[in-house]
Specification:
Distance between the termini of chain A: 50 Å
Helix content of chain A: 40-55%
Shape of chain B: elongated
Strand content of chain A: under 5%
Structural class of chain B: mainly alpha
Number of helices of chain A: 10
Radius of gyration of chain B: 17 Å
Shape of chain A: elongated
Strand content of chain B: under 5%
Oligomer: heterodimer
Structural class of chain A: mainly alpha
Largest sheet of chain A: 2 strands, antiparallel
Largest interface: A-B, 30 and 19 residues
Helix content of chain B: over 70%
């Protein structure tokens, strides 16, 4: 858990301004964040962010898989079926590793009777009855696209989580500095009083 | 364009609105994760997420209104 620094200013200004975050080994944290969303933050002791990343990213990914019946994530670079969405999905190991394993196998593994994350069979006749990809897309209709989008967004969100595990948060609104007032030695206050 | 075709057009638009519900979880998740990469403490994360969700929702509503008006006028 990040601890606020023992500074008197920390209590009066933005509470995050003087926050000390121990990132431990940033590269290891980034790898763990890729391996499982939130795992890198858990390793760093940033538990609430670990839970948030895990729930949000894995929830989005799982819902996308559910919409697409486990077939919207797969790795394929065959000429009729270049799966470009996988470039976004691969930023989390729960998508990248099973898809990579399934892509290398001639006979894919089956999980509960489903060829989970296996590339669908395609034929030269893309509208033909033996083209599995065409059949799946016709059956799932818009849920194929929705599942693909959900899993793509989950992968891209994990890029943000990996970066956060590696480099820490990028504070968006630093506390406004009052340096000018201090440097003037209260002259501006005097001018205000004179004009009044 | 007569009233009948306008009615059909409007009903087609509203029939597609159901698909917009799929955007709602995405707005929540994207706002929370993005805000979590900008802040460290839970309270600022939630405040930032609310602000960003409002921006995304507002932007989508404006886009929807513009497209709907364009469809209605064509």
């Amino acid at each position: 858990m990040p601890k606020p620094a023992a500074s008197p200013e920390a209590t009066t200004q933005d509470p995050e301004e003087h926050l000390e975050i121990d990132l431990k080994d940033p590269l290891q944290a980034a790898f763990l964040a890729w391996l499982l969303p939130g795992l890198g933050h858990w390793y760093q002791g940033r538990r609430h962010k670990a839970v948030l990343f895990f729930v949000c990213i894995m929830g989005t990914f799982g819902y996308g898989l559910y919409l697409g019946e486990g077939r919207v994530v797969y790795a394929s670079w065959r000429p009729p079926d270049r799966r470009l969405p996988f470039l976004c999905q691969m930023w989390m190991a729960p998508a990248a590793l099973p898809a990579a394993v399934q892509a290398t196998r001639a006979k894919p593994f089956k999980v509960f009777g489903q060829q989970y994350m296996a590339p669908p069979q395609v034929s030269a006749d893309v509208r033909g009855p033996e083209d599995e990809l065409d059949r799946i897309q016709k059956r799932l209709h818009r849920y194929w696209e929705l599942g693909t989008v959900y899993t793509m967004i989950a992968g891209l969100l994990n890029v943000l989580a990996i970066y956060d595990a590696w480099g820490g948060p990028a504070y968006s609104a630093p506390a406004p500095a009052k340096k000018e007032d201090d440097d003037s030695g209260g002259e501006s206050d005097k001018r205000k009083e004179d004009s009044a | 364009m007569n009233d009948w075709s306008q009615l059909v057009g409007a009903s087609l638009v509203f029939a597609r609105i159901n698909e917009l519900w799929f955007a709602l979880p995405l707005i929540v998740v994207v706002s929370l994760v993005y805000s979590a990469t900008r802040h460290e403490l839970p309270a600022p994360i939630l405040q930032g997420a609310l602000r960003m969700a409002a921006w995304i929702g507002g932007f989508m509503l404006i886009g929807f209104a513009v497209l709907y008006l364009m469809c209605a006028m064509l």
